[in-house]
Amino acid sequence: MVSVSSISGGVVLVLCAFFYGLEKSRVETKKLEMTEAMCAFVEYIGQQIETFRTPLQRIYEEFSDERLEKEGFLNILRERGLSASLTQIKEKLPREAFCEMERFSNSLGAGYEKGQAELCSYTVKRLEKTAFEGRERLAQRLRMYRLLPVLLALSLVILLL
Amino acid sequence: MERKNTYFEESALSFLPHHLGEAVRRSGGLYRGNISEIRLRSGASLSVTAGAKSILTPIRCTADDILYTVRSLCGNSLYSHSETIKEGYICTDGGIRAGVCGRAVTEGRRILSVTDITSICIRIPHRIPGASDGICKIMQEEDFQGLLIYSPPGEGKTTALREIVARMASKPYCKRIAVIDTRFEICQSLSGDLTMDALQGYPRAKGMEIALRTLSPQIIMCDEIGRSEDSEAIIESHGSGVPTIATVHGRDLTEVKNKPYMKKLFDAGVFSHAVGLRRSAEGFVLKVNRLKEK
């Protein structure tokens, strides 16, 4: 006979697996959104440099984005610069996008406008590519994150009961 | 008396890498408040100018030190200073100006950009309250029609202009002064309630034209005349009844008069006075030349 406590344990396990899957999906979606936000940020820097030669500090102060604001990225950016603010969101960006942004921050501000505008457009292209690949993978991954943990938990419950 | 200038000095030191800033603090300690220049040359010792003295520190500057300093002078935005770097200087937001030189990339006679910067001369602005007293007295004379200040480089022409603005554009005089601050040297370190209009970064001739047309100034002021178009703009301003206060490099009046672009100005009689300037421990020593008889 299967006891009530075993059934409740099984249900809890399946629910945990379900919520774990949901959380993983949320994290993946968020990473994609952050990559897109970074893309818009770099594009804005490029436009400001090319059109107005605006100094970086002023660009940082003028740029706004709800997603980046919420993550605390913009506050640190305005106070301590790009490198420090990237460290703040390291875990929230895909690895490739983070490496790209790190390279970008090392060269940003160190050259004349033409080179800097090219640096921005190159970085935007790389980030767009990362975001595009991320979007393609996301649908597949979301299905996997939602189903796989639940299926595994169910199998485990059946085996144990 | 020259005021201790530690605020601008500290501000200038903040642009240097930490070890260089410390070297200046140690070696230039005796001269604090009177440091007028900090010079960095790649592969050579860092030096400090205080008064007429050059003090060599034991620290050698590396290419990385120069790069760091340039980036920090530019607020980490080299591109936003590309035009002035081509002209040989960088101006910071705090009113500090640095001369820079390196390898020029040219096309014909035009400089496209400057790379591999190897020398930086950070010039620290000074305020010498009271230093303009003699000049301000001249400006209140009835027959005042324009003033030329001349001296060799580094004797304080720009400092004198700054003091004149600070004095004449404030109470009780409140003269409407249009300052053509082509190289961002005069106005950035001035603050307070001044009746001054600052045309910063404008080419001198264009700035004077705009000031005359739109600002109805009582006095126009510009630093370091060096082209014949500047002279023409000053003549035009004189013709409109607005006196000009200008500066020019020169050891004495004869040398100044012999410069081709200055000749025009003297012929047109745009200046009623010419003042030779020399810096001394007490402030400025003036040599006043009256160019028009009363």
Supply the key terms.
heterodimer; A: 161 residues; mainly alpha; elongated; B: 294 residues; alpha/beta; Beta-Lactamase; Rossmann fold; 2 domains; 7-stranded mixed beta sheet; 6-stranded antiparallel beta sheet; 10 helices; 13 strands; 32% helix; globular
The name CATH uses for the topology of the largest domain in chain B is: Rossmann fold
Measure the end-to-end span of chain B.
32 Å
Gross geometry of chain A: elongated
> What structural class results from the helix and strand content of chain A?
mainly alpha
Taken in chain order, the helices and strands of chain A follow as HHHHHHH
Unreliable residue runs of chain B: none
Oligomer: heterodimer
Radius of gyration of CA atoms of chain B, rounded to a whole number: 20 Å
Radius of gyration of chain A: 21 Å
Strand/helix succession of chain B: HHEEEHHEEEHEHEEHEHEHHEE
Summarize the structure.
The complex is a heterodimer of chains A (161) and B (294). With 161 residues, chain A is an all-alpha fold.
How are the secondary structure elements laid out?
The complex is a heterodimer of chains A (161) and B (294).
Chain A: H1 4-52, H2 56-62, H3 66-70, H4 73-80, H5 82-88, H6 95-107, H7 113-160
Helix pairs in contact in A: 1-7, 4-5, 6-7
Chain B: H1 6-13, H2 18-27, E1 35-41, E2 45-50, E3 53-60, H3 63-73, H4 82-87, E4 89-91, E5 97-107, E6 110-123, H5 133-139, E7 147-151, H6 157-168, E8 177-181, E9 196-200, H7 204-215, E10 219-222, H8 228-239, E11 244-249, H9 253-258, H10 260-268, E12 273-280, E13 283-290
Parallel strand pairs in B: 7-11, 7-12, 8-9, 8-10, 10-11
Antiparallel strand pairs in B: 1-2, 1-6, 2-3, 4-5, 5-6, 12-13
Could you explain how this protein is built, in words?
The complex is a heterodimer of chains A (161) and B (294). The model of chain A has no long low-confidence stretch (mean pLDDT 90). With 161 residues, chain A is an all-alpha fold. Helices cover 85% and strands 0% of the residues of chain A. Chain B is of the alpha/beta class and 294 residues long. Chain B folds into two domains: 118 residues, Beta-Lactamase (2-Layer Sandwich), CATH 3.30.450.90; 158 residues, 3-Layer(aba) Sandwich (Rossmann fold), CATH 3.40.50.300. Chain B has a seven-stranded mixed sheet with strand order 9-8-10-11-7-12-13, with helices on both faces. The radius of gyration of chain B is 20 Å and the shape is globular. Classes of the chains: A mainly alpha (161), B alpha/beta (294).
